[in-house]
């Protein structure tokens, strides 16, 4: 029942995405309507996904987290897409903002597809761990793209904060190795959830610290490079766990 509702609402959201993209080239009224429609649809989708997660029961919290993370990714992608649409409104087809819009739309569709795959996998206990890991790998790749962009973070933080966040990577690495050895679905799902948070926190802290007022351009470049290398190395580890 929940799966059908999620599928139906997700399809409506994909249609809203198309209207948003086409709305950038049309009137402000049409753009506003498309934005409002997508906001209503994502609210409905979040509700049915939450109901679906609740139906799993409290004895499987890690899988509930996987579902909630999937809808959070869709909501974030939609927010980015609406922002990109506003930036591209009334601009010529070859304007850089149009390329950003197409990129945001692609991420949006990727995340909706990922949500639907996750919903399907939840019904099959044998594939839950694999799907959770695949979704986490995709999420980390998207976070790395944001990290590597030229966008300056809204706030800076101390280098100490960045160092503190690397401890999460160490813990997640140990968990990933253990999951690779045990191959138990619940261990793999827990690894996926922990990895997602650990890497995202590290990337945020690293970028914020690299823009601290005391940091030179050379040190900033090194910090950003090492943040990227750390993430790529961790992705490689998760790919190995997935293979196992």
Q: What would your notes on this structure say?
A:
- The chain is an all-alpha fold and 244 residues long.
- It has two domains: 2-125, Talin, central domain (A middle domain of Talin 1, Up-down Bundle), CATH 1.20.1420; 149-242, A middle domain of Talin 1.
- 83% of the residues lie in helices and 0% in strands.
- α3 packs parallel to α7 (185-210) and α5 runs parallel beside α7 (185-210).
- The chain starts with a helix and ends with a helix.
- It comes from Chunga burmeisteri.
- This is TLN2 protein.
- One of its GO terms (molecular function) is integrin binding.
- It is found in: Cytoplasm.
* Contiguous helical run count: 8
Major sheet: none
**Strand fraction:** under 5%
CATH topology of the largest domain: A middle domain of Talin 1
Spatial shape:
flat
The CATH class of the largest domain is identified as: Mainly Alpha
Q: Roughly what percent helix?
A: over 70%
Number of domains: 2
* CA distance, first residue to last residue: 33 Å
- Can you tell me the CATH architecture of the largest domain? Up-down Bundle
- Could you report the average pLDDT, rounded to the nearest whole number? 90
Order of helices and strands: HHHHHHHH
Rg over C-alpha atoms, rounded to the nearest angstrom: 19 Å
Q: CATH H-level name of the largest domain... which superfamily?
A: Talin, central domain
Uncertain segments are none
Give the tally of β-strands. Answer: 0
Structural class: mainly alpha
């Amino acid at each position: 029942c929940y799966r059908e509702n999620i599928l139906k609402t997700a399809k409506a959201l994909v249609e809203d995405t198309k209207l948003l993209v086409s709305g950038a080239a049309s009137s402000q009224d049409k753009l506003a309507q498309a934005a409002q429609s997508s906001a209503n649809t994502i609210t409905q989708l979040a509700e049915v996904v939450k109901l679906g997660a609740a139906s799993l029961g409290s004895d499987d919290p890690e899988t509930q987290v996987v579902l909630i993370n999937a809808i959070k990714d869709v909501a974030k992608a939609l927010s980015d897409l609406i922002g990109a649409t506003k930036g591209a409104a009334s601009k010529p087809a070859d304007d850089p903002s149009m390329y950003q819009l197409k990129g945001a739309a692609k991420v949006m569709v990727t995340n909706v597809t990922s949500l639907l795959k996750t919903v399907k996998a939840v019904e099959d206990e044998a594939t839950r761990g694999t799907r959770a890991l695949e979704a986490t790998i995709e999420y980390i790749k998207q976070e790395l793209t944001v990290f590597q962009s030229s966008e300056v973070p809204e706030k800076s933080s101390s280098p100490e904060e960045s160092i503190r966040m690397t401890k999460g990577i160490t813990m997640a690495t140990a968990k990933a190795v253990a999951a690779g050895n045990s191959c138990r679905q619940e261990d793999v799902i827990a690894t996926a959830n922990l990895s997602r948070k650990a890497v995202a926190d590290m990337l945020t802290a690293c970028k914020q610290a690299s823009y601290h007022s005391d940091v030179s351009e050379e040190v900033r470049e090194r910090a950003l490079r090492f943040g990227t290398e750390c993430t790529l190395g961790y992705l490689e580890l998760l790919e190995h766990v997935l293979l196992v």
